[in-house]
Amino acid sequence: MITGSDAMWLGFVALWGALTVALIALAVMLLRLREAEQRLRDKEAEQQGVLDRLQENEYRLRTIIESEPECVKLQAADGTVLEINPAGLRLVDAGRPEDIIGKKIYDVVAQEYKDIYRENMRRVFEGEAVVYEFKSITLKGRTCWMETHAVPLRDARGAVYALLGITRDITEHKWAEEQGRRHQTELARVARLSTMGEMATGLAHELNQPLSAIANFARGCIRRLRSGDVAPADLIEPLEEVCEQAERAGEIMRHVRDFVRKSEPRMTAVDINQVVRSVVKFTELEARQHETVVTLHLAPQQPRVWADSIMVEQVICNLVRNAMEAMAETRSLRREIMIRTVPQGEDAIEIEVIDTGPGIDGAVIDQVFDQFFTTKPEGVGMGLSISRSIVESHGGSIRAESRAGGATFRFTLQAIPLRLSSDERRYSLHS
Amino acid sequence: MSDATVFIVDDDQAVARSLRWLIETVRLKVETFASAQAFLDGYDASKPGCLVLDVRMPGMSGLELQERLAARRTHHVPIIFITGHGDVQMAVRAVQAGAFDFVEKPFNDQDLLDRIQRAIAFEGEQRGREAHRAQLRALFASLTPREREVLDLVVEGLSNKAIANALGLSAKTVEVHRAKVMEKLHARSLSDLVKLAMQHQAA
């Protein structure tokens, strides 16, 4: 039986129990809340750490970029300069960042290089890394040469949003290169002139031939006319010979002019066999003086080469002259030079100058193309060195070999594939 | 005019043709050769004339051709070298080696023609002398050994008697041999005989 006080007691117990449960629950919840708070704080701290590190990183990068001695810059696709470091400012002669930031990079690119520059930018924004050279006119109007290494910068989705460019001033390098090139050209000219010096006597002989023929024909005519012992018609043939020989003399002179002319390489489609023949004609007298027989083995069907014919002629001339001198010095019994042209597939032609001289000493064969290397008592040692630089500037190579019965020099020139013949024929007509 | 031929060796065909045109004005025959070898192969030594030669030629040079001709035991054709400017050294060598003359380019036409005429005249005389020597050789060859002995002693100035003693013959026999020698050599006098004997000795 449950009394009223019992009921009250029971109620009290139940209430207390409920309270206890509620308190426990509350305590647990509080505890959880604490934990959550702690976790939140941890997370915040962690985030702050990341942010700090990010900031640190950026700061470090910025310091590197700012102190970088070469120009570092960001450009938009339209050429707008987004960012540039102090070295970059100095490079373009900008006093303050705003002189160039927000402006178009084209402002400092020389007119004739703007298209090239634009093309290179286009390639970078298509995702390529490129290196290009251009001429720059700085904000103060100074002209200089630049070389830029440019790479695309991509956003999180992989789209290119800027060009990162590192640019160097290569003016001095360019200048040195230009000087070097000029020096080479000048060297080649000097070599041609000294060659001319060596050939002066030869040239006198060469000219003597047509001149004495002219004199003989003319005097023969005069003598017949004086004696009245000739029909006018009989004089036509000798007079034609006179004209022919005068033209021959003129041809020799034209050749000399071409030979000494100072000029940049003039590239045309060249028939190498024609060049060889012209060399033979030009060195005919020297060959006669050296009592040397020159024979030709020319490939009947060969592609043309893209070359400066005068320069190539000079190379062959040098090789032929070298061969003659080598054979003369050692009093070789058989003095023969064979010049061959040998196509190397469709891409190249090899020109060989083969002599019956003493050959080349194995100990020096690697030095024969060096400047100032010579075995001749009065040689300067320029001929082969210039020949090599000419051949190499034509994209070819030259080498020397010594055989049992003499020396062989061979060099290659790049051929113009035969299928381009229609264009190339037009060139050859003008050359 | 003489029937002499001017042989021209020049590898430069235009020069060779022009020389022919010039030399033909003095009515000389001309034959041209394009190389020393061609000349060696085609030259007929029995033809009188002279050789006009360019000193420098590819293959066999003018000087080499001269040497080759000198080595031949036949008649020596006189050579006129044509040299270019600055070839004096070569010309000297050529003359030392027996060249008749040389002209330097550019030459005067009359000068060249004169030298050619001189060379041809020289060659004619040379041929004459050679013919004379050949004749002498033939005449002397017709003598018997005994006649040769008698002749040698006559030329030494011995009298018939001394010759007879020396050879163990009678003076009469020596007289007969002597008359035979005079007849065979077409000598009219003693001095004639001595002269002929000396020429023969020199030849």
DSSP strand count of chain B: 5
Q: Which CATH architecture of the largest domain in chain B?
A: 3-Layer(aba) Sandwich
Oligomer: heterodimer
Taking Cα atoms only, what radius of gyration of chain A do you get, to the nearest Å?
42 Å
Number of domains of chain B: 2
Helix content range of chain A: 40-55%
Question: Tell me, what is the CATH class of the largest domain in chain A?
Answer: Alpha Beta
SSE arrangement of chain B, N to C: EHEHEHEHEHHHHH
Number of strands of chain A: 12
Largest sheet of chain B: 5 strands, parallel
Low-pLDDT stretches of chain B are none
Q: How far do the termini of chain B sit from each other?
A: 30 Å
The structural domain count of chain A equals: 3
CATH topology of the largest domain in chain B: Rossmann fold
Shape summary of chain A: elongated
Q: Widest sheet of chain A: strand order?
A: 2-1-5-4-3
Query: For the report, how would you describe the main beta sheet of chain A?
Result: 5 strands, antiparallel
Give helix and strand order of chain A, one letter per element, not per position.
HEEHHEEEHHEHHEEHEEHEEH
Average pLDDT rating of chain B: 87
Contiguous low-pLDDT stretches of chain A (5 residues minimum) are: 421-431
Let me know the CATH homologous superfamily of the largest domain in chain A.
Histidine kinase-like ATPase, C-terminal domain
Question: Which key terms come to mind for this protein?
Answer:
heterodimer, A: 431 residues, alpha+beta, Beta-Lactamase, Helix Hairpins, Heat Shock Protein 90, 3 domains, five-stranded antiparallel sheet, five-stranded mixed sheet, 10 helices, 52% helix, elongated, disordered C terminus, B: 203 residues, alpha/beta, Rossmann fold, Arc Repressor Mutant, subunit A, 2 domains, five-stranded parallel sheet, 12% strand
